[in-house]
Every structure is written in C-alpha cells, then in structure tokens.
Design brief:
The protein is α/β, with parallel strands linked by helices and 362 residues long. Helix content is 50%, strand content 16%. The strands form four sheets. The chain has a five-stranded mixed β-sheet, sandwiched between helices. A three-stranded parallel β-sheet has the order 4-1-5, covered by helices on one side. Helix 6 crosses helix 7 and helix 6 runs antiparallel to helix 8. Bound molecules: glutamic acid (GLU).
C-alpha cells in the first residue's frame, strides 16, 4: 500500500516536471547555437540575451524539446564560420539568406523580411550650416569644378602674360613677378566679363576673346551647378538614398550584405566589427552615413539614437533572415516545422510585436 502511494507520488512529480519546459523533456544533446549581438534581434542582457531572434529561438527550442546553449561570436562572418567549423550546430541572429551563402549552408524558412537602409546624423529640415557648405564644396563633382575654375584663370593669365609682355604698350610688366599677378588679375576680370583694358597685341586680343567666350560658358555652368546643389541640399539635406552614397564616408559591419552591396556599387565602406562602433564613428563625425539592415537602423533611431540620427530613403536590396545550418543538417526539418507552428498559433506574431511595435508606431 505504502509502495503504491510512492509510485503515484513519483508519477505526479514526473508529469509535473515534464510540463515545465524544454530542459525536462530534452530529446537530444544540448545544441550549440551561434549568435552575435545585433539589437533588436540579439541584445546582451547581463550574462544572457534577449531580442527577437533570442525569443524566437527560445520558442522553437521549446517546441522541439531541445536544450541549447549560446555561442556568441563577433560578426556575421564569424557566425557562418562557427556553423562551418562545427563550433555551432546552427546559428540565429539577423543572417540574410543569399544565393552565395546557400551554396555552403542550409537555411530555415525565412523568419524575417529585411533589407538595407541608410542612417545619417539628424538634421532639422532647412538647416544649412558651415558643415553643409563645406560638404557642398568638398564632395561630388564640386572639387573638380573648382580646380577647373582655378585653371581657367591661371592658364589664360600665363598665356596672356606671355603674349603681351614684349609688346611696347603691354598691360603687364615684363618680369614674371609682378607681371603674372597683373595678368592673372586681368584674367579674373576677363572671366567675369569686366576687364577695363584690352590687351594691345594681336595674340593677346585673340586670347582675350577666346578666354572670355570659354569663361562665359564655364561660369554659367558653374553657377547653374551651384544653384542646383544648394537648392537640392536645402530642400532635402545631403544623402537621400543609395544613389547619393558615392564619394561619402560610409560605415557598416564587417562581412555583412551591406558591405557586399556597397562594394558592388563602388562605395568603399569602413567596416566595423559591431554596428554600434559605426554609430559611434558617425556621431564623432568620422562618417557621413551608416548603411545596414533596415530593422537594426530603425530600432537604433527609435531608441538610443533618438534625436541624434535619422533613417533616410527607401529600403533597398530586400533580403530575408533565416536560421543557418551546416549542409544536410537533420535539424533543419524539425526547426522549420516548429517555426511554422509558431506562425500558425500566433506565438510568432506576439514575439514580433514585442520587439517591433515601437518601430512601427514611429
Ligand atoms: N543581415 C546582414 C547579413 O546577413 C547583417 C548581419 C550581421 O551583420 O550580423 O549579412
């Protein structure tokens, strides 16, 4: 009788613990799961982690009844490396599914729709400070235009001095100094259509006619370019989309799809281990923009970066995140079924809203 009671007692205890989570009903060895800090997907919290991917993986593991431990690495390259070398059985963070990666790894069903976007320092619309004026003259085609303008004055100045200096009634002194100053001064006047005196010699006059015509065309062009640049920047600010990135100082995280995108579009980015380091560099004015995964940038702009940074332009280079496995992994199918189950029973949406309602309502 006493023995029967004990048996019932142990059975109740066993049943109770079976319902308490993945640990008790674990159906295989502890899984090593690689991640990397990338808010809001993986956020370091004391000695543990939180975030969308952390919650999602927790739910998948509990659905599968598997125990796991996190293996944290530094960037996406190292995440893939951990799966490739067997240091991890799988990886989850914000890893984009790409055709190149698909050749070396297996991916789960897409777990998140993403893409790239641009983060820039906050600017109040209409503000136009010294920094913007400096940028205007130092970026894009403007330095070349300014150099051409200098050449347009120095070259005719020299030619005019050479042509005129030996003429008896020359406007310019025979010697290089101050002759060249006088000739350059004359060339500036000619470029502006205002020189008070005409050269005396035939070559000098021919040169004057040519340089006035060329300058007229060139100055009109320069004026139009400057006006357009000022207007566009005043209306919109500097970088508005991926087409404005050329010639800018752009940062991103090493080995990411954004680094690959930028290089393919002739922008050489500064690559940082963490995207936080890129944010810091932008705050310190060492970067004009950070190009990275849109949800990561939006999360930062809505939280710690609020008031300091803003996301601009459309989402480009659309990509999906997936869980990464070594090729042929037996884990892929059960992970996929768990993921689908979570989508069907609403758990996925709850996790999504927990992490992204802040961004969507911004
Ligand atoms: N989603 C990007 C990629 O897979 C960035 C991931 C990361 O830097 O962790 O390349």
């Amino acid at each position: 009788m006493k023995f029967g009671f004990l048996r019932v007692f142990w059975c109740v205890l066993l049943l109770a613990s079976a319902g308490s989570g993945a640990t008790a009903q674990s159906t295989g060895p502890v899984l090593n799961v690689a991640n990397r800090v990338i808010p809001p997907f993986v956020i370091k919290q004391g000695t543990g982690y939180e975030g969308f991917s952390v919650d999602l993986w927790g739910a998948i593991a509990s659905e599968m009844g598997r125990d796991f431990k996190w293996v944290e690495v530094g960037n996406v390259k190292e995440i893939l490396g951990a799966v490739e070398t067997g240091k991890a059985d799988l990886a989850i963070a914000a890893v984009s599914i790409t055709s190149e990666r698909e050749q070396k790894f297996d991916f789960s069903q897409p777990m998140f729709e993403s893409g790239l976007q641009i983060l820039v320092p906050s600017r109040t619309s209409g503000s136009f400070g010294i920094r913007q004026v400096w940028d205007l003259f130092t970026t894009g085609a403007m330095p070349i235009l300014l150099a051409l303008m200098a050449a347009m004055i120095l070259v005719p100045g020299h030619l005019a001095w050479l042509a005129e200096r030996s003429h008896p009634g020359s406007l310019f002194s025979r010697s290089y100094f101050p002759g060249i100053f006088q000739a350059t001064w004359w060339a500036i006047g000619a470029a502006a259509g205002q020189q008070p005196e005409n050269p005396r010699s035939v070559p000098g006059r021919t040169l004057a006619a040519i340089s006035i015509l060329v300058s007229l065309f060139f100055l009109t062009y320069l004026q139009a370019t400057l006006t357009a640049a000022f207007t566009v920047r005043q209306l919109q600010g500097g970088i508005q989309g991926p087409d404005d990135l050329a010639g800018q100082r752009v940062g991103t995280s090493s080995g990411s799809t954004s680094a690959i995108y930028l290089k393919a579009h002739h922008v050489t980015p500064t690559e940082f281990q963490t995207v936080e380091q890129a944010y810091k560099a932008m705050e310190n004015r060492q970067l004009d923009a950070v190009v990275f995964d849109a949800p990561v940038l939006l999360y930062y702009a809505a939280t710690q970066g609020r008031g300091k940074v803003q996301v601009v332009g459309p989402i480009f280079n659309k990509e999906n995140y997936g869980i990464v496995f070594p090729p042929g992994s037996e884990l892929r199918k059960p992970v996929n079924s768990a993921l689908l189950k979570l989508r069907e029973n609403g758990r996925f949406d709850t996790i999504y809203l927990k992490w992204f309602s802040a961004i969507s309502s911004n």
